[in-house]
Amino acid sequence: MKKQNLKIKRTCVYNVNYHIVFSTKYRKKILSEDVETYLKKLILQIANDKGFHIEVIEVGEKDHVHIFVSAEPNFSISYIVKMIKGISARKLLLFFPVLTECLWKEHLWNPSYYVETIGSISDESIKKYIEGQNK
Question: Which of 10, 31, 61, 72 is most buried by a 10 A CB count?
Answer without folding.
Answer: 31
